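User: Second chain of the day. Same drill as before.
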Amino acid sequence: MTDLSARLQQSDSPGSPGKGEPEFLVVGKLRRPHGVRGEILMEILTDFPERLRANVVIYAGDEHQPLCIRSTRQHRQALLITFEGYDDRESIGELRNKFVHVYTDDRPPLPDGEYYHHELIGLQVVTDIGENLGVLTNILETGANDVYIVHPIDEGKDILLPAIDPVILEIDLEQGQMLVHILPGLIPDG
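Assistant: Same format as last time:
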């Protein structure tokens, strides 16, 4: 058994992802070869780039090709990365423009009260007075705070809720529900 095979067996997820949860999460995009020794520039698309280090297995492209990281180094706002079995510019060039993924199960845990976006999509949104507003369908990232887009059950216009403490009271992933308080003016009349 090769080193890569052993690491793949260790990193395989034993179960299926939860309802609505992706099996893989994108952490970067491979851009272009750098130099002649098998390095490639990777755009960082994760908040945890420090986890991308030697001997970590990641998965490239739609086919989720397993790749074992040999080395990484910072290069401006990106990483220069090498993989086992890719030792020259031509071979590493085959990975150009592919997204790089990790298993969802391998993501780092977040502090209490923080959630990954995919964990929130699909939650039923209910007010503190018992009104079912609809389903959280999307999240807009703004400079100040995220905005949750709720598709109403009556097929009306989407409701935009700021992700702030006075509005978002409780998130219960096990029950698939988000409890909210509607401040005046958040839902337009008629």
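Helices lie at 3-11, 89-93, 117-120.

User: Great, on to the next one.
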